[in-house]
Write a structure and sequence with these properties.
Chains A, B: One of its GO terms (molecular function) is oxidoreductase activity. The structure is a homodimer. Chain A has 16 helices and 19 strands. By secondary structure, chain A is an alpha+beta fold. Chain A has 3 domains: about 15-105, Uridine Diphospho-n-acetylenolpyruvylglucosamine Reductase, domain 2, CATH 3.30.43; about 110-225, Uridine Diphospho-n-acetylenolpyruvylglucosamine Reductase, domain 3 (2-Layer Sandwich), CATH 3.30.465.10; about 235-405, FAD-linked oxidase, cap domain/gating helix (Vanillyl-alcohol Oxidase, Chain A, domain 3, 3-Layer(aba) Sandwich). In chain A, strands 12, 13, 14, 15, 16, 17, 18 and 19 form an 8-stranded antiparallel sheet that branches. Chain A has a 5-stranded antiparallel sheet with strand order 5-6-10-8-9. In chain A, helix 10 runs antiparallel to helix 12 and helix 14 (about 350-360) packs antiparallel against helix 15. The radius of gyration of chain A is 23 Å and the shape is globular.
Chain lengths: ~450, ~450
C-alpha cells in the first residue's frame, strides 16, 4: 500500500490505461498496484472471480464513499464493497473491470452511549473491538461470528452474520437499529433510528442487512448493546451417538432453558480433533448458560439424560477448547469447504446422520459442527489438499447437503449468505416469484447494476 | 352478518349498484349490508375516512384471499385488509369505493412444534390465544401489545406491534420467521423460512412486517416461540419525581439487569388512577424480572436508590394493577388520544417533563405512561368528551409531542405505526430521499396502488 495516489494530480498514463482517471479525480486514496489488488480481490470462499479489479479505493470518510460511488455511477464501473474479506461465499470477491471499495480504514467507534444501550460505529470496526469497547461499560455487542477477531461490523451487517450466542441473543439483524447508507449514485440515506424501538415507515434497515453490498454501502451503523451477564456456566456432555446429543439440545428447550450457546460436534469432528476422544463418546454437546446457578444445575441435569459423561465449569475455555480446535484440526486434514445450512431444530440429528450418508456416497470426509440451539449446521467437507483444485466429489457432496436442507424444511444458508456460490440454490429455495421480486428491489436501489453485481441473488 | 352472499348466484341489482359483481363472482363470502360495513370501516384511532367501503369480504382460505385480490386488481378496487381493527392510526380505516378484507375468520393455529420452537398460524388468530396455546407446551409467544386479547397476529405483524415484555424479548419483527403473503395481483408469495436462522436472499419478511397491509396480505405466519420463564418477580417503586424514576430504569441497565418490562407512570397518570396515590410519590416504576431470586433482589436494590417506597411480589397482578388501570382511568376523564413516541433511553425523563410543558402550553391534560426499558412513551392526551369533535388544542399538543420526539433524537412512532394520522410526520422523520425509496418499493409490490392506499407512507 505504498502507492496511494489520492492527491489531485492529473491522471497518469497508467490510470488512463486502467480507466481510473475518474477515481483519481475523486481525491480518495486509491491504488492500482498489483500486490494491493491481489490482496483484496478474493474472500475466503476459494472462489476465483474472472480477471482482476482495476483498482482499490481506500475511503476514510462518508464523503469519500459518496465521491467513489458517484464517479462509479457516472462511469458505470462496478464497485465491490469490502470489509475484512472473510466471506465464505464469494460475496466480496472482485473481478475484471471492477473497483474494490475497501472500508477497513473507516474503523472508528463513533459513540458508545451506555444509558441508551447503543453504539454508533463506522463499517470497518472489527467486531471483537466493539465488543471489548462495550465491555468497558458492562455491555456487549452480542453477535459473535467465528471470525469476530477479523471481520468488520460492515461485513457482519452486509451478511447478517450469526454466531454462537445468537441462540439466545439474536443475529446481527437483531442488533442493528439504524444505518447510514451511501446509495449507488452517491446519495446518503439514513435508515432506522437511534432508539431501541421504532416502526416509522418500511423497514429499510432490515432490507439492507444481509444484502451483501448489492443495495448500498453501509457507512455507519447504530447498534444495540446488551448487558454483560454476571456469570456464565459451561457444560460439556459426551453422548454415545449424535441422536442423543441432538435430543439433549431439544430437551433443554423443553425444560424451558434458553442456553446462550449449544454447540454440537459429531464423531468425524471429534476424530479430527483427537482420535482419543472416541473413548469419551461419539458426539459432544457444549452448552453455556448465563442465568443463575440453579439454571446451570438444571441444564446439567437435563443434559445428563443419555450422556456418557458431563462436565460443568465456570471457566468456559477448557470446555470450549474442543470447539475452538475443530476448524484448525480439520484444516490439518486438508482444505475444508465450510458449508452452512439450517434445519428445523427437531431435524438436527437426522441432518447430521444423512450428511454422514452423503459423505460415504461421495467418498469424502465431512465433519459437522452445529449451532444446535438454532438448528444451524456447518458441514466441513475436506476437499483435497490446500491449493489443489476442489475435487468434483466435494462439490457434489455440497450440492447433496443443500438439497437435504431443503428436503428437511430448512434453508441453504443459516448465517453465511449467498454470495456467488449459492445463487442457484437461492433460486431453488426462494422460487421464481420471490426471486423476481428481489431482482426488482435490487433495480430500485441500483438501476445501473454497479453495486457488487452478480452477488446475493 | 346475516347476509353472506358467497354462493355463486348471478350478481344482483344491489351488487351491480355497488360495483361488486366481481366480488360476488369470486364465491368468497361477503356482505354489503350497512351494519356490517359500519362495524368494519373504522379502527380505534377516531379517524373518519371519507365515505364508506362498498362491501366486506370474509375469506376463509388462502384461495379466497387470492380470488379477492385478483378480482380487485382486475377492477382496480382498493382493498383494506383488517384484523380486529384495533389500530390507533387509521391504518385499518376504509373509505369510499374500497372493499374491506376481514381476515378475522382465518383464525386457525395451524401447527405448534415445540421441539422446533415455532408456531404456524393464520392471520386472524387472536394474539393471546396463540400465547395460551403455546403455554400448554411450556412456551410463549413473546410480543404482548396491550390489545393482545383483541388484536390479531396478522394485525400485529402488519404493524410490527410492540408491547410490555419486548424490552427483553423483542417486538413482533423479532418473532416472525417467515410468511405466506398474497400479492396485489393474487399471487402467493412465500418469504423467510421455518428455521430459527436463515439468510437466503433479501429480507422480504422484514419488509412486510410493519408495512400496514400496503405491500401484500399476510395469510400465514411462522412465528418463533420462546421458553416460558420458570418464575417472575414484580417490583413497584414510587419516586418523588419522574427524573428519579427514569434514572432508576437507566440504573437497571447499568447494573446489567435486563428486565422483562419496566413501566413508568407519571404524576398525571397516578392522579387519574387515584389522587390518593400522590402521597406515595409522583412517579411509579413497575419492573418485572424473570431470572432468579438474586436478580430480583438485585433489581429491587437498584430501584431502592432514590425511591420513596419499594414493593416486591411474586404475584405480578397487584403491582401491575395501577398500570392496567391507567387507560380505563384516563378514559373516565374524557376521550384519550393515545400517542406513541420513542426517544433514546437517556432522554426519557426530559421527554416526560417537556410533555408536561406542552400540556400546560395548550391547556390540555396529558397523562404519560412509558415502556421505560426501551424509551417508548405513550402520552395520553385527554381530548374532550367521548364523541365530541377533537379540540384543536389536543391536535396541536400532539404535534408538539412528535416534534419533541424528533428533537430528542427519537421517532414519531415506537410501536403503533404511521397509518393515516402520522404520514406528515413520517415525511419529516424519514426525509424525502427515504420516502421516495419507500414509495418506489410500494410500486414494486402494488403497481396499481390498490392495497390499503394512502396508508403507512
Amino acid at each position: 500500500m505504498s502507492t496511494f495516489t489520492g492527491d489531485h494530480r492529473p491522471a497518469s498514463a497508467r490510470e488512463a490505461a486502467a480507466g481510473l482517471e475518474w477515481l483519481a479525480r475523486t481525491g480518495v486514496p486509491w491504488s492500482a498496484e498489483p500486490d494491493v489488488i491481489a490482496s483484496r480481490r478474493l474472500d475466503r470462499s476459494g472462489w476465483e472471480p474472472p480477471g482482476s479489479p482495476s483498482g482499490v479505493a481506500f475511503p476514510r470518510t462518508v464523503a469519500d464513499v459518496r465521491a467513489v460511488l458517484k464517479g462509479a455511477a457516472e462511469t458505470r464501473t462496478p464497485v465491490v464493497p469490502r470489509g475484512a474479506g472473510t466471506a465464505l461465499t464469494g460475496a466480496s470477491a472482485a473481478g475484471s473491470g471492477s473497483v474494490v471499495l475497501d472500508l477497513s480504514g473507516m474503523n472508528r467507534i463513533l459513540d458508545i452511549r451506555p444509558a441508551d444501550g447503543v453504539a454508533v460505529v463506522e463499517p470497518g470496526v472489527i467486531t471483537a473491538d466493539l465488543d471489548r469497547a462495550a465491555a468497558a461499560h458492562g455491555l456487549r455487542y452480542a453477535p459473535d461470528p467465528a471470525s469476530l477477531e477479523l471481520s468488520t461490523i460492515g461485513g457482519n451487517v452486509a451478511t447478517n452474520a450469526g454466531g454462537l450466542r445468537c441462540a439466545k441473543y439474536g443475529v446481527t439483524r437483531d442488533a442493528v437499529l439504524g444505518m447510514e447508507i451511501v446509495l449507488a449514485g452517491g446519495e446518503l440515506l439514513t435508515t432506522g433510528r437511534a432508539t431501541l424501538k421504532g416502526v416509522a415507515g418500511y423497514d429499510l434497515t432490515g432490507l439492507f442487512v444481509g444484502s451483501e453490498g448489492t443495495l448500498g454501502v453501509i457507512v455507519s451503523a447504530t447498534l444495540r448493546l446488551r448487558p454483560l451477564p454476571a456469570a456464565t456456566a459451561t457444560i460439556a456432555a459426551y453422548y454415545p451417538d449424535v441422536e442423543s446429543a441432538a435430543a439433549a439440545s431439544v430437551a433443554l428447550a423443553e425444560a424451558r432453558i434458553q442456553p446462550v450457546l449449544a454447540e454440537l460436534l459429531d464423531q468425524a469432528t471429534l476424530d479430527a480433533i483427537d482420535p482419543g476422544l472416541r473413548s469419551a463418546g461419539s458426539a459432544l454437546l457444549i452448552v453455556q448458560t448465563d442465568g443463575d446457578q440453579a439454571e446451570a444445575a438444571h441444564a446439567a441435569e437435563v443434559l445428563r439424560a443419555g450422556a456418557v459423561s458431563v462436565q460443568v465449569s465456570e471457566d468456559p475455555e477448557p470446555l470450549l477448547y474442543a470447539r475452538r480446535q475443530a476448524l484448525p484440526s480439520i484444516e490439518r486434514l486438508g482444505r475444508p469447504l465450510i458449508e452452512d445450512i439450517a434445519v428445523p431444530r427437531s431435524r438436527l440429528a437426522e441432518a447430521v446422520r444423512r450428511i454422514g450418508v452423503i459423505a460415504a456416497r461421495h467418498d469424502v470426509r465431512i465433519c459437522t459442527v452445529a449451532h444446535a440451539g438454532d438448528g444451524n449446521l456447518h458441514p466441513l467437507i475436506v476437499a483435497g489438499s490446500h491449493g489443489s483444485p476442489i475435487p468434483e466429489a466435494a462439490v457434489r457432496a455440497g450440492d447433496d447437503i443443500f438439497a437435504l436442507a431443503l428436503e428437511l424444511g430448512g434453508t441453504v444458508t443459516g448465517e453465511h449468505g449467498i454470495g456467488v456460490l449459492k445463487r442457484q440454490w437461492l433460486a431453488r429455495e426462494a422460487g421464481p416469484l420471490s426471486l423476481d421480486l428481489q431482482h426488482r428491489l435490487k433495480a430500485v436501489f441500483d438501476p445501473l447494476g454497479i453495486l457488487n453485481p452478480g452477488k446475493a441473488l
